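Colleagues,

For the teaching module next term, I've prepared a clean inverse folding example: a structure given as tokens, and then the sequence designed for it. I'd like students to try predicting residues themselves before seeing the answer, so please don't circulate the second half yet.
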């Protein structure tokens, strides 16, 4: 027995983050050597060859501390986004920026609004600061409930956290919906607009938070990442684009000083420089997303509209059970574990052969249920 220790009560009650299963664990559980990991919204294409060249041994000095300001990367991002570098903060993944902005902006007892189902850290990080999180359920047709979001805004939460495109559901906020939010939001509320899947959204449907919000006078933080379309999930680089220097400086102070390591800064710069690779990879994923969605519909499922690299759908029974049975076939998917959504499955779009493997396994489960 260890002596009782007094712990931060806000941390003790946090739900665990539902991270995807590793390939090693899946091999052990399934007995399959070849695993289709379709649970973590990674890029099946890997990353640009320019990244691997930039990481060649001669290009790196691992014995030096990294630049805590990520100046070169911020300047490149500033040019790419037409934003002043002082408004950009780079993080050890955008998840670090969610933690840092929560530390910078929230006090115990503050109110935060977000949607349900939600990306886990949109709830976990504010709650770790002692804030209360109100979650607005999606509509029955798997979309944002705009009237309910506007109603929540009328109570002037400290933060409104939204991912658009929306993890885990898939749709993006429309221009009209964003306009309605902008009309209702007060200066007391900071809009955290998480665009982790921005690059996957179809151009016609794409709401560009960085460009659109810059033209307003609301307080906001837009989040983007190199983990998804740029394929750098393992290196951990994301960033926050802030409405003003006051917010950006507070987030800078709340992050750890040398948060983005030298390899990650080098890789992100090279990845940003190879837009052609990223766009070709996104095009392949979009095409597969359409094909897999149709195949799921043929099986009687109704995936939500997706502007991302994943699909979310009700599987009409406990999704953990379905995920366990898919794992036996060597396929990792994500059963959703949030209250009220335990019948939903989220599957990442992989390479065509991985997607076929998932569809085949799912079809055999669906047939064996009938
Ligand atoms: C909506 C959303 N925001 C942020 C993140 C975190 O991404 P990163 O790898 O940049 O920390 C994810 C990762 O899945 C996500 O889905």
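(Answer key — instructors only)
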């Amino acid at each position: 027995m260890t002596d009782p220790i007094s712990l931060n009560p806000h941390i003790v009650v946090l739900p665990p983050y539902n991270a995807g299963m590793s390939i090693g664990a899946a091999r052990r559980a399934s007995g399959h050597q070849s695993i289709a990991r379709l649970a973590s919204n990674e890029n099946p294409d890997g990353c640009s060859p320019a990244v691997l060249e930039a990481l060649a041994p001669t290009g790196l000095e691992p014995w030096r501390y990294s630049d805590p300001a990520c100046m070169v990367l911020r300047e490149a991002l500033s040019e790419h986004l037409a934003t002043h570098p002082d408004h950009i903060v780079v993080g050890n993944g955008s998840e670090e920026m969610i933690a840092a902005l929560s530390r910078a902006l929230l006090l115990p007892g503050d109110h935060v609004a977000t949607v349900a189902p939600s990306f886990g850290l949109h709830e976990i990080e504010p709650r770790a600061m002692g804030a209360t999180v109100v979650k607005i359920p999606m509509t029955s047709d798997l979309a944002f409930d705009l009237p309910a979001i506007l109603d929540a805004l009328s109570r002037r939460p400290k933060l409104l956290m939204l991912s658009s495109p929306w993890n885990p559901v898939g749709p993006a906020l429309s221009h009209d919906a964003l306009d309605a939010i902008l009309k209702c939001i007060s200066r007391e509320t900071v809009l955290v607009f998480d665009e982790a899947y921005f690059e996957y959204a179809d151009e016609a449907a794409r709401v560009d938070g960085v460009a659109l919000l810059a033209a307003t006078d609301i307080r906001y933080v837009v989040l983007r990442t190199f983990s998804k379309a740029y394929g750098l999930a393992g290196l951990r680089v994301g960033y926050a684009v802030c409405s003003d220097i006051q917010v950006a400086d507070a987030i800078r102070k709340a992050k750890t000083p040398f948060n983005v390591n030298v390899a990650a800064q080098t890789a992100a710069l090279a990845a940003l420089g190879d837009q052609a690779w990223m766009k070709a990879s996104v095009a392949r994923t979009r095409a597969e997303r359409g094909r897999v969605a149709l195949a799921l519909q043929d099986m009687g499922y109704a995936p939500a509209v997706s502007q991302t690299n994943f699909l979310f759908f009700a599987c009409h029974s406990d999704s953990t059970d379905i995920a366990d049975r898919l794992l036996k076939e060597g396929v990792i998917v994500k059963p959703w574990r949030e209250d009220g959504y335990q019948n939903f499955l989220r599957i990442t779009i992989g390479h065509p052969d991985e997607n076929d493997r998932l569809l085949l396994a799912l079809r055999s489960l669906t047939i064996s249920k009938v």
